[in-house]
Design brief:
Structural class: alpha/beta
Radius of gyration: 18 Å
Order of helices and strands: EHEEHEHEHEHEHEEHE
Strand content: 15-25%
GO molecular function, one term: metal ion binding
Shape: globular
CATH architecture of the largest domain: 3-Layer(aba) Sandwich
CATH class of the largest domain: Alpha Beta
Keywords: Iron, Iron-sulfur, Metal-binding
InterPro entries: 4Fe4S_Fe-S-bd (IPR017896), 4Fe4S_Fe_S_CS (IPR017900), EFR1-like (IPR047964), Flavoprotein-like_sf (IPR029039)
Distance between the termini: 23 Å
Number of strands: 10
Helix content: 25-40%
Number of helices: 7
Strand order of the largest sheet: 2-1-3-4-5-6
Protein name: 4Fe-4S ferredoxin
Pfam families: Fer4_9
CATH topology of the largest domain: Rossmann fold
Largest sheet: 6 strands, parallel
Length: 252
């Protein structure tokens, strides 16, 4: 089974391609995921998720800590990142072993950038995003082969200063940079409700006359920002001049 958390679509693309290659099924990690209904015939669990500031998304960590799964499963990690993943693989291995499960192989897949809420961070150019998506297809094929052969590897792009990024910046990001309070909409909002329907946490409600309102159970995936068809969702003033990433339906 493949457990996938995806906000903007990158990890969903990877999980779907892996499922095709491995003849496996995908279970979406959401606020209402029922692990008791998961495929009981599986022999492995592949965790697919985006890197959050060189670490594991809190929602994924929460599901790892609480999911009821057979102890005999082999666990694998495939994370998506715009550039590098820091020590995300080591974080994941600690969490899996803390549950008494078997952590086998880890990989990262470079995908188009989606983080836009700090100065200096923006989406990739269309040309760069296209190159990343084209390269991802071959990368996922290699990962699928590794999973089929039970590869015990850590094939992750850690980048420069991974200890600083994952041990110092990541905890600060979780504590101070994931608040949903700055989310707002411009007058261009049409109240189409797409952001609310697609929110993996069920955290957005549509209020007549006011449009979307964000609750406190936010995964900070930025899917609402990137999916808005009229670019009306903002995060304070930080995203006023930033671009949007529109995930394709499938990989090349």
């Amino acid at each position: 089974m493949i457990a996938c958390f995806s906000g903007c679509g990158n990890s969903h693309l990877v999980a779907d391609r892996l499922a095709q290659s491995l003849n496996d099924s995908v279970t979406a990690i959401r606020h209402d995921t029922d692990w008791n209904a998961a495929d009981g015939d599986t022999t492995r669990m592949v965790w697919v998720f985006p890197v959050y500031s060189w670490g594991i998304p809190p929602v994924v960590a929460s599901h790892i800590a609480s999911a009821t799964l057979p102890e005999t499963l082999d666990h694998y990690m495939v994370c998506t990142c715009g550039d590098d993943a820091g020590l995300t693989d080591r974080q994941w291995r600690r969490m899996i072993r803390r549950r008494g499960w078997k952590a086998v192989g880890t990989w990262s897949v470079t995908m188009p950038n989606t983080y836009v809420t700090l100065p200096g961070f923006d989406v990739d150019s269309p040309a760069l995003a296209s190159r990343k998506l084209e390269a991802a297809a071959a990368r996922i094929a290699d990962i699928a082969r590794g999973i089929r052969h039970h590869a015990r590897v850590d094939d992750v792009v850690r980048g420069t200063l991974p200890w600083l990024k994952s041990r110092i910046i990541y905890p600060l990001f979780r504590r101070f940079m994931m608040s949903p309070r700055p989310f707002n909409t411009s007058p261009d909002c049409t109240s189409c409700g797409l952001c609310a329907r697609k929110c993996p946490m069920g955290n957005i409600t549509m209020t007549p006359g006011h449009g979307p309102e964000w609750g406190t159970d936010c995964a900070f995936c930025l899917g609402c920002y990137h999916r808005c068809p009229v670019h009306a969702v903002n995060y304070g003033r930080a995203t006023a001049s930033k671009g949007q990433y529109h995930s394709p339906e499938s990989l090349p």
